[in-house]
Specification:
about 475 residues, alpha/beta, Alkaline Phosphatase, subunit A, 10-stranded mixed β-sheet
Length: about 475
Amino acid sequence: MRKGGFFGSGLILQSTDSVATLSPMKNPILTLICAFLAIAPATMAGEKPNIVLILVDDLGYGDLGCYGAKQARTPNLDALMESGMRFDQFYANCTVCSPTRASLMTGLYPDKAGVPGVIRQWPNDSWGYLNPAASTLPQALKSGGYHTAMVGKWHLGFEDPNIPTSRGFDFFHGFLGDMMDDYWTHRRGGVNWMRRNTEEVAPEGHATEIFSQWATDYITERAADKTDTAPFFLYLAYNAPHFPIQPPEDWLKKVTAREPGLDIKRATNIAFVEHTDAEIGKVLDTIKTTGIDNNTLIIFSSDNGGSLPHGASNGALRGGKQDHWEGGIRVPTCAVWPGKIPVQRSNALGMTMDFLPTLCEIAGIKIEHPVDGQSLAPVWLRNEPGNPERPMVWVRREGNHRYQGRAYYAIRRGKWKLQQSSPFDPMQLVDLDADPLERNPMPAKGKVAEELTRLLMDHIQAAGQVPWQPRVKL
């Protein structure tokens, strides 16, 4: 591992385990003081970090160089991962887009936020409705003195009360819809969902480049504003590398020239990932050149695993997007905050919904309502191991002939995972310690399966109280 990574030197701990030890120093008292200062919450000193949360779409677990991609060149994200805490067992809350984003926004399981499936602009093919009563991450951070902004893909609603500026964001510059039919024309089903706050806009260019430019504009403006010194929260959500796989032509030519024997589908996906990496690099460069890097917390993750039919790779993990196998839900993730978060790899368990309680704890904001997520601040800041026995549930509801509007589930507790990847599949039990690649799943029988089934039924009962369609007057 290269010490320092993207933002230079910081507190360096290196380990493949969830617990590591500080390098010894000659003076034990000085060692204790330095360690305390390095991991103490920012709010103890009266300052709160800027927060930049970057979420990409459909990035495979094996699509970054640092996660084992042999053909891909992703220097910016590789360096970012080497600058903070990289997670090897971090999970998206769902195997598709909207539910994971609902969990990020609310700190709740997707179905408890009203979004068990994908929200679409066509009512007869929309499988979620963000609960208007649910509190959101930007609302919480705003109450703690943050200026809140979002750039990029929203995918949680098309009108009040479920648009970004109605759910806690002071500023929105992005795309209300789900996937884009074309990254150059920015339409979905013929509709332009690009907005600046609530105003329709029609930018020109590749969507990934547009979102990076809008993000750098926002960061530059906040850093230069001497009249408003409030910290900011920027949620930067890219559509890429979600299909259609459309890298700019020069990026594809570069990959095919470098890897002449590579299948064209895979080459195109790699080019798309590399282009996204370069654009994220521009945002990271802006954080550094504006001089705010030392007090900016950066989180990077994906909303689900890579789509295998579109050339993504999830490495050795089984399955991909839409599956509850590890390849569909385990995602590349890191948290970077120079001098506060140690540089190391962690096996601590985490889920997208954990970002809300984690960021609120770091910002010194008390959560007054129940959330399902667990704060990872002790893992990030104090190098604690987290909770390896926490139960984690996954749900996804979908239409079409394959799913027929039904939901399917998975649950993990400790080393045991019970899962199905279709509502018509039987549940299967996996011992992730003995079978980490899920090659030999077992029938869902015995005491462990019964215990997990009971926990899952408890969850389904609780989530059943939350409507996942908009209420209509009869």
